[in-house]
Design brief:
183 residues
Amino acid sequence: MKEETVSAVQQLCFIALMAGVMCLLGPLSIPIGPVPISVMTLLIYLSVYILGMKMGTISCVIYLMLGFVGLPVFAGYTGGAGKLLGPTGGYLVGYIFLTLVSGFLMEKMAYQRIWCLLATIAGTAVLYAFGTAWFVVLMDCSIGYALSMCVVPFLIGDLAKIVLAELVGQEVRRRLRAANLLI
């Protein structure tokens, strides 16, 4: 078997594994308002740290597609087009932008710690902006209301998830690369 083929198979396995983890843990949530507290942002952060921009984004898109077709992989064991296209769906779709922005910046900065933290914060800001704009349009509410319901309650928790992802993600990525399992 050619080395490129093994590498492609390994990449596909990592993408599928991360999408599977998202599907397994994504439904676990604590409802606190229109947007529940979940582990999804942590999983998205880890996917980018471990897999990089391209593979992390693909695993995220697979997760979203599975939810779109009705599998109960979203918070609270929900799924379907209505959930993805509803008022809080912008935060789900925003995961794609989070992976793209964070992954791009991390790769450009060669995964240096401080830059990875800043890249993840920037990606999260884009997620918040996209999700909030979507919420405002669909709910016909003020930006202040949307921020108070959909962003402010998550700031401290997401910051903690960013730090945790930095600590865990960097180490997992280093070990997988040392074992020649990641490019």
